[in-house]
Amino acid sequence: MTAPFAILAEPQRRRIFDLLLANERPVGAIVDELGVSQPAVSKHLRVLREAGLVDVKVDAQRRIYRVCGEPLQAVDEWLEPYRRLWASRLDALERHLDSTPD
């Protein structure tokens, strides 16, 4: 399985992922929203699906895509040390600002 970072590094896939993060959608709605060809959107959705970042349900003739959060756990774990770093720096900035006269 390819890392979520590599999959989401592609700008069109990120745009599709962002749309699906807000709301599940059929392929046609993604095509309309992004103004990209249906084959291109389908190709990107296939890559996202194979990476486990989205899944699909069949509704009669339509395929509805939605985000799967589980693969993003690896991204969240990777970001944790950076969150701690920024939190400590922002806390230090807050203390500095609180100690300076207005």
Record keyword descriptors for this entry.
14% strand, 2 domains, Arc Repressor Mutant, subunit A, three-stranded antiparallel β-sheet, 65% helix, alpha+beta, single chain, 102 residues
Account of the protein in words:
The chain is 65% helix and 14% strand. With 102 residues, the protein is an alpha+beta fold. It has 2 domains: 68 residues, Arc Repressor Mutant, subunit A (Orthogonal Bundle), CATH 1.10.10.10; 32 residues. It is elongated and about 65 Å long.
Average of the residue pLDDT scores: 90
Number of strands: 3
**Structural class of the helices, strands and pairings?**
alpha+beta
Q: In angstroms, what is the radius of gyration?
A: 19 Å
Do you know the CATH architecture of the largest domain?
A: Orthogonal Bundle
Order the strands across the largest sheet as they lie in space.
Answer: 1-3-2
Task: Please render the helix and strand layout as text.
Blueprint: H1 4-8, H2 11-22, E1 25-26, H3 27-34, H4 38-50, E2 54-59, E3 62-67, H5 72-99
What's the short version?
By secondary structure, the protein is of the alpha+beta class.
